[in-house]
Amino acid sequence: MKVFLLHTFVIIAFLLQACAVNLNNNEHITEVYFQEILNSNDKANMGLFFSLMPKGGDIHHHYSGALYAETYLDWAAKKGQCISTDSYQLIACNEDDDQVITIDSLKRNTRLYRTILEAWSDINFSDHYHHETEPDLQFFNTFSYFGEISGSFYRNGLENIKKRAVDENVQYVETMINAPPTNTTFRQSQIDSIKNYQNKNDTINLVKTFELMEQAIISNPTYDSSITAYIDSLHKYHEGIDDLDFKLRYQTYAVRTLNPGVVFGQLYSGFDATSRDTSNLIVGVNIVAPENGLVSLQDYRLHMQMFRFLKTKFPTVKTAMHAGELHVGMVKPEDLTFHIHDAVFIAKANRIGHGVDIPYENQPIKILEKMKVDSIAIEINLTSNEFILGVYGNDHPIKIYYDFGVPVIIATDDAGVSRNSLTTEYVKLASRYQFKYTQIKGIVFNSIQFSFLNPEEKSQVTSRLIQKFEKFEDEITQIIAD
Question: 154-184+220-466, which class in CATH?
Answer without folding.
Answer: alpha beta
